[in-house]
Amino acid sequence: MKRVLITGAAGFLGSHLCDRFLKDGYHVIGMDNLITGNLKNIDHLFSEDRFEFYHHDVSKFVHVPGELDSILHFASPASPIDYLKIPIQTLKVGSLGTHNLLGLAKVKNARMLIASTSEVYGDPHVHPQSEDYWGNVNPVGPRGVYDEAKRFQEAITMAYHRFHGLETRIVRIFNTYGPRMRLNDGRVLPAFIGQALRGEDLTVFGDGTQTRSFCYVDDLVEGIVRLLNSDCVYPVNIGNPDEISISEFAEEIIKLTGTDQKVIYEDLPVDDPKQRQPDITKAKDLLNWEPIVDRSEGLRITYDYFKSLSDEELYRKDHQTFEKYIIR
Ligand code: UDP
Hints:
The chain folds into two domains: about 5-175 and about 215-240, Rossmann fold (3-Layer(aba) Sandwich); about 185-210 and about 245-275 and about 295-325, UDP-galactose 4-epimerase, domain 1, CATH 3.90.25. It is built from eleven helices and 13 strands. The protein has helices at about 10-25, 80-85, 85-110, 145-165, 190-200, 215-230, 245-255, 280-285, 295-305, 310-315, 320-325, and strands spanning about 5, 25-30, 50-55, 70-75, 110-115, 170-175, 175, 200-205, 210-215, 215, 235-240, 245, 265. The radius of gyration is 19 Å and the shape is globular. Bound molecules: uridine-5'-diphosphate. The site of uridine-5'-diphosphate has 16 residues, from helix 5 and strand 8.
């Protein structure tokens, strides 16, 4: 039986990956330090014989007994609010954490797939973003801790591939949404849906002309599985090219939720990218992959999930008290 280690297993993407690899017959070892992850996302897996969970911070030495075929490194804070609250942990998990896991992959002779991000393109001067664009990142801005950690992560992963001959894969993930996103992590989709559910106005930052392209989580997971099983060593974008402005997106959420609240405009965060859309030619050509869930369908499923949360979850400011876990 194949064995896979998934870091960030209690997070949004990590938990969906655990589901998928269990469904595909793997033995799944999940790891998470639970700073931004939530055990509720994987509660349903603890009864499964082929699932194990380690409560561990991958920025420290990682030990996993037994063989490993693959490692998927998905541990990282992933929203602008999180980077501001836990900037040093964000840097460490992308750099030290990746280094530890590459070392583990080398010892186990495992294939390593790292979760990179469209943030490596920064506020892009090229549109849509293809993998050969090197990006426009501000290293000293608030997003720098995430963007530069992810850029370093790609560099060290390529170095392990070139120097040690390690089998490596790099996925550049664009905005993704679906059930199990954290309601109050500040990202736009949970922010808007949470506001609608609480009867608050929807906060659009800036003038709302900035664009994003949202991919449903099941499509992303399918792309990741195909990439892992491919021989593509260089980064591959996985995302949905269906681009929308944030103010149009707010209108879609208003329609979806039937809220009678209005849109209010607030200041644009520093270094907020003006536009973002993946060029997925490479994924289409090399992985025969493209997204199949359109936004209306994906948003409906995601809205049903958020509606099912308790009032306590709906009104809580954070799902976790970061301070409790932070080791400075
Ligand atoms: N945004 C917004 N209102 C919110 C939260 C976010 O208008 O309540 C905007 C944000 O400024 C950005 C876009 O929505 O332009 C997407 O933000 P998110 O944090 O989801 O992701 P990222 O900026 O990393 O793509």
